[in-house]
Amino acid sequence: MPTSHDSSGSGRLSPQQIGGVGERLARNHLEAKGYRIVACNYRCRWGEVDLVARDGPVWVFVEVRTRRGDAYGVPEESLTPDKAQRLMLTAQHFFGELQDGSAEADWRIDLVAIRLGPARRVLDIHHLENVVAG
Predict the structure, then answer these.
(1) Whole-model pTM?
(2) How far is 132 from 63, CA to CA, in rounded Å?
(3) Above 50 in pLDDT, residue 8?
């Protein structure tokens, strides 16, 4: 019998479902550290950023990478140069839409890397700040 979280009947989560679990975990982790989440899954023609947050006066664009085990490498290694470039363009587009002077604000791109074990147990969460230099 399929689980309530899996529409395929296999009992396993799809990559999209794993991503959703990771984004919720990352959001909770950042909020516990005092970050204020401003947007989730912000999309534009350049790409998508999983979370937009404020760390005090600093805008933070957060890429969340979630893996089950290490078969495909650790999540921190999965941020490609192409994705990093798209994150930069997406962040710039976000400020362009605000049109409130925020474009001059301090901002950075962070990575939250999450490894899940059996039964979606969190093995570890790493929050890496300023992972993309602009």
Answers:
(1) 0.84
(2) 10
(3) no
Is residue 7 domain-resident? no
Local structure of 19: helix, strand or coil: helix
C-alpha distances in angstroms, 106 versus 39, 47, 87, 114? 17, 21, 16, 26
Q: Cα separation of 46 and 105, whole Å? A: 21
Question: For 15, how many CA atoms within 13 A lie in the half-sphere containing its CB?
Answer: 2
Q: What is the pLDDT of residues 98-130, one digit of tens each?
A: 766 665 679 999 999 999 988 889 999 999 999
In the sheet that holds 122-128, the strands lie side by side as 36-44, 47-55, 58-68, 107-116, 122-128
Q: Which domain holds residue 31?
A: 15-128
Residue 8 inside a domain? The answer is no
Q: For residue 101, is it within any domain? A: yes
Alpha carbon distance, N-terminus to C-terminus of the chain: 49
